User: Fold this.
Amino acid sequence: MNRQRSKRRPLNPVESLCWSMIALSFVLPLVLRACSETKSDRCNRLISISNRTSQTVQKLPAENLQPADRFTKAADLLERAAQEMQDLKPSDSKLLDLQQQLTTLYRQDSTNNLTLAQSQNAKAVRTAAEQIQTDSITQKNLVQAVNTYCQAPDA
Assistant:
Protein backbone atom coordinates (compact mmCIF):
# COMPACT_ATOMS: atom_id res chain seq x y z
CA MET A 1 0.00 0.00 0.00
CA ASN A 2 1.44 3.23 -1.07
CA ARG A 3 0.43 6.17 1.05
CA GLN A 4 0.71 9.57 -0.24
CA ARG A 5 1.89 12.12 2.24
CA SER A 6 -0.23 15.15 2.45
CA LYS A 7 1.65 18.24 1.78
CA ARG A 8 1.12 20.88 4.40
CA ARG A 9 0.98 24.39 3.37
CA PRO A 10 3.15 26.74 5.40
CA LEU A 11 1.33 28.71 8.07
CA ASN A 12 0.84 32.36 7.45
CA PRO A 13 2.06 34.73 10.15
CA VAL A 14 -1.38 35.15 11.75
CA GLU A 15 -1.93 31.38 11.96
CA SER A 16 1.55 30.92 13.35
CA LEU A 17 0.90 33.55 16.00
CA CYS A 18 -2.43 31.94 16.92
CA TRP A 19 -0.86 28.50 17.34
CA SER A 20 1.97 30.00 19.38
CA MET A 21 -0.53 31.73 21.67
CA ILE A 22 -2.51 28.52 22.11
CA ALA A 23 0.64 26.61 23.00
CA LEU A 24 1.69 29.38 25.38
CA SER A 25 -1.71 29.33 27.10
CA PHE A 26 -1.09 25.70 28.03
CA VAL A 27 2.55 26.08 29.02
CA LEU A 28 2.41 29.40 30.91
CA PRO A 29 0.30 28.19 33.86
CA LEU A 30 2.67 25.25 34.33
CA VAL A 31 5.70 27.52 34.27
CA LEU A 32 4.14 30.01 36.68
CA ARG A 33 3.13 27.27 39.10
CA ALA A 34 6.64 25.81 38.98
CA CYS A 35 8.19 29.22 39.65
CA SER A 36 5.92 30.26 42.50
CA GLU A 37 7.33 29.75 45.94
CA THR A 38 5.42 27.37 48.18
CA LYS A 39 4.83 27.65 51.90
CA SER A 40 7.31 24.82 52.34
CA ASP A 41 9.97 26.72 50.36
CA ARG A 42 9.49 29.85 52.45
CA CYS A 43 9.58 27.85 55.67
CA ASN A 44 12.69 25.96 54.64
CA ARG A 45 14.55 29.18 53.87
CA LEU A 46 13.61 30.72 57.22
CA ILE A 47 14.50 27.57 59.15
CA SER A 48 17.76 27.19 57.23
CA ILE A 49 18.90 30.71 58.19
CA SER A 50 17.94 30.13 61.81
CA ASN A 51 19.68 26.74 62.04
CA ARG A 52 22.83 27.92 60.28
CA THR A 53 23.08 30.99 62.51
CA SER A 54 22.52 29.00 65.69
CA GLN A 55 25.13 26.40 64.73
CA THR A 56 27.69 29.04 63.77
CA VAL A 57 27.23 31.04 66.97
CA GLN A 58 27.42 27.88 69.08
CA LYS A 59 30.79 27.04 67.51
CA LEU A 60 32.32 30.40 68.44
CA PRO A 61 33.51 29.36 71.93
CA ALA A 62 35.66 26.66 70.32
CA GLU A 63 37.51 29.28 68.28
CA ASN A 64 40.68 30.62 69.80
CA LEU A 65 39.43 34.20 70.20
CA GLN A 66 39.52 36.72 72.98
CA PRO A 67 36.06 37.11 74.59
CA ALA A 68 35.58 40.60 73.13
CA ASP A 69 36.42 39.32 69.63
CA ARG A 70 34.09 36.36 70.06
CA PHE A 71 31.19 38.65 71.10
CA THR A 72 31.94 41.01 68.22
CA LYS A 73 31.95 38.11 65.77
CA ALA A 74 28.66 36.81 67.21
CA ALA A 75 27.16 40.29 66.84
CA ASP A 76 28.23 40.41 63.19
CA LEU A 77 26.85 36.92 62.47
CA LEU A 78 23.53 37.77 64.11
CA GLU A 79 23.21 41.06 62.23
CA ARG A 80 23.91 39.37 58.90
CA ALA A 81 21.36 36.66 59.72
CA ALA A 82 18.80 39.31 60.65
CA GLN A 83 19.34 41.05 57.31
CA GLU A 84 19.17 37.78 55.38
CA MET A 85 15.99 36.86 57.22
CA GLN A 86 14.46 40.29 56.63
CA ASP A 87 15.19 39.97 52.91
CA LEU A 88 12.99 36.85 52.68
CA LYS A 89 9.76 38.87 52.70
CA PRO A 90 7.32 35.96 53.12
CA SER A 91 3.92 36.56 51.56
CA ASP A 92 1.70 34.96 54.19
CA SER A 93 0.98 36.96 57.34
CA LYS A 94 1.73 34.26 59.92
CA LEU A 95 5.18 33.46 58.54
CA LEU A 96 5.86 37.18 58.09
CA ASP A 97 5.05 37.77 61.78
CA LEU A 98 7.37 34.95 62.88
CA GLN A 99 10.10 36.16 60.54
CA GLN A 100 9.83 39.71 61.92
CA GLN A 101 10.02 38.44 65.50
CA LEU A 102 13.16 36.41 64.71
CA THR A 103 14.72 39.36 62.87
CA THR A 104 14.07 41.64 65.84
CA LEU A 105 15.46 39.03 68.23
CA TYR A 106 18.64 38.59 66.17
CA ARG A 107 19.18 42.36 66.02
CA GLN A 108 18.64 42.64 69.75
CA ASP A 109 21.11 39.83 70.41
CA SER A 110 23.60 41.46 68.05
CA THR A 111 23.39 44.70 70.06
CA ASN A 112 23.73 42.79 73.34
CA ASN A 113 26.80 40.94 72.08
CA LEU A 114 28.38 44.26 71.11
CA THR A 115 27.64 45.51 74.61
CA LEU A 116 29.43 42.46 76.03
CA ALA A 117 32.37 43.11 73.72
CA GLN A 118 32.73 46.84 74.25
CA SER A 119 31.13 48.02 77.46
CA GLN A 120 33.12 48.88 80.55
CA ASN A 121 29.90 49.28 82.54
CA ALA A 122 29.36 46.19 84.71
CA LYS A 123 25.60 46.76 84.96
CA ALA A 124 25.25 47.07 81.17
CA VAL A 125 27.26 43.88 80.67
CA ARG A 126 25.15 42.00 83.22
CA THR A 127 21.91 43.24 81.64
CA ALA A 128 23.12 42.28 78.14
CA ALA A 129 24.13 38.80 79.31
CA GLU A 130 20.76 38.27 81.02
CA GLN A 131 18.93 39.47 77.91
CA ILE A 132 20.86 37.05 75.71
CA GLN A 133 19.88 34.19 78.03
CA THR A 134 16.22 35.25 77.93
CA ASP A 135 16.38 35.65 74.16
CA SER A 136 17.72 32.12 73.71
CA ILE A 137 14.51 30.79 75.30
CA THR A 138 12.43 33.13 73.15
CA GLN A 139 14.30 31.97 70.06
CA LYS A 140 13.63 28.31 70.87
CA ASN A 141 9.93 29.11 71.24
CA LEU A 142 9.87 31.06 67.98
CA VAL A 143 11.66 28.29 66.09
CA GLN A 144 9.16 25.81 67.53
CA ALA A 145 6.31 28.08 66.37
CA VAL A 146 7.85 28.24 62.88
CA ASN A 147 8.17 24.44 62.79
CA THR A 148 4.59 23.95 63.98
CA TYR A 149 3.25 26.42 61.43
CA CYS A 150 5.34 24.99 58.61
CA GLN A 151 4.28 21.41 59.34
CA ALA A 152 0.58 22.31 59.32
CA PRO A 153 -1.21 21.67 56.04
CA ASP A 154 -1.98 24.67 53.85
CA ALA A 155 -5.36 26.17 54.50
